[in-house]
Amino acid sequence: MPIRIHERKMPISPEDVRTILQAETDRFGTFFNLDRILYHEARYSRIAFTNYKEFRAMCGSPSIVCTKRAAIREILIRRFQVPEYKLYDKDNKASVSKEVVEALLKDDTLTEDVKRFLELYSTISKAEYMASYLQQYKKLPISLMEDMDNQRMVVAHPVWERLSTSRFSASSPSVQNINRDVCDIYTAPKGWQMVFSDSGQIEPRITYSAFIRDPLIQHLITLYDDAYFGLLHFILMTPAEEETARRDMGSIVKREVTPEEKQKRQRLKVLGLAGNYGSNNLSAVDAELGPLYERKIVSHPARKEWEANVTAQVRSGADRFFGYFGTPVIPENTGKYRKGDASWARHMIRCGINNPVQTTAAELMCFSVQYARKVLGPEDHIGSYKHDEGMFYVREDRVDELAPKLRECLSYHVEGWIPIGSDLHIGRKESLYVASVF
């Protein structure tokens, strides 16, 4: 059974949760397979090396490196005649960021030579970044124990910090958000097994449960057990279909999940991300679904009311917002936004929309950590946590008993909400790129 939450209050403070996470990784640790780290480092270094010859020939420079981004911009503009405005990022500055490069690769007006140059730049940049990223694990102390596969492993004792949104960050090194390409570097000591549990679509389910409450949208998401198929069904409804559905939700028939519907679902997910990051022209993102999303979601009365309330709070001098369970979040000064600047009010309004959702996810994680610590035995440990996933070290003879309970740790049944379920994975998450030597 999922964690059942009946009251709108926290059972444990975020600071107490930080203390639990710190104690767990201090006394046991989080483990990484050293041989896989070395393999991936060599693989990425080889990718960069083998692509540089063609890239440098296209640049007309035998020694240029991808980290010299100003030089790369100039080559695109001067050598390949790419108009400078096409390199502008969301801050209207010329850039070769990942987002700009992805947009250029989709630009049908650019020549094949330009696109090949960008593909090489993207490939090399990612490879160099990943080889560098893996250094933080390579430098960790080698454990005296072997891992579950009788291979060498290193052990991390990260430093946990609570962020302004009450999410938790692990540093020195990071043990969260390991890139999927190298997810297999996670390992467990011999005698233990890794159990992964992660919440499904936690942020959209929070959004349409706690902040944009529409019974029809909630019903559709629950009907499909998928936030994006539910939202897709909603925006594709004609006014007459929506009116009928609101009168009798039991009459709604699920759309057939065809390959075309799956493709539309992915496009809708992209629209949602674009809207969250401030795009004000979703029609340009998707000519078919963009106008529907703007009309049915962006202009939804509940969303407009939410935005109006946040705007009124900011204009009244509010300096903080709150998660669903009451945890405050105070937007901080950043390099781009500082209190007193002309752009601060707009920044605060964006924070007032986005931060409470993130903080609510962090609040649910607090419920989860408290529950997990009750489930785990004295020899079982929390290996890492983020707001929608936990990784646990469980003694091998207790995996069958504890795995279902740990799945429940990331499932939530909040009264009046769309259910938040979770997935379970036992053992190593294999990378697509691992050689058969492992």
Break the fold down into its secondary structure elements and pairings.
Layout: E1 3-5, H1 14-27, E2 30-33, H2 34-59, H3 69-79, H4 98-105, H5 112-133, H6 135-138, E3 153-156, E4 159-162, E5 168-171, E6 186-187, E7 192-199, H7 202-211, H8 215-224, H9 227-236, H10 239-247, H11 259-276, H12 282-285, H13 289-298, H14 301-315, E8 321-322, E9 328-329, H15 344-375, E10 381-386, E11 389-395, H16 399-408, E12 412-414, E13 422-426
Parallel strand pairs: 1-12
Antiparallel strand pairs: 2-3, 2-6, 4-5, 7-11, 7-13, 8-9, 10-11
Account of the protein in words:
This protein is α+β, with helices and mostly antiparallel strands. It has 16 helices and 13 strands. Helix 4 runs antiparallel to helix 5 (112-133), helix 7 (202-211) packs across helix 15 and helix 8 (215-224) crosses helix 9 (227-236). The longest helix has 32 residues, at 344-375.
Could you say which overall geometry the principal axes of the C-alpha atoms support? globular
| Termini separation | 37 Å
Strand order of the largest sheet: 10-11-7-13
Question: What integer value in Å does the Rg equal?
Answer: 24 Å
Helix count equals 16
The residue ranges in which pLDDT falls below 50 over 5 or more consecutive positions are none
**What is the string of helix and strand elements?**
EHEHHHHHEEEEEHHHHHHHHEEHEEHEE
Which range does the strand content fall in? 5-15%
What structural category characterises the helix and strand content? alpha+beta
The helix content is: 40-55%
Number of strands: 13
What composes the largest sheet?
4 strands, antiparallel
Report the average pLDDT across residues: 94
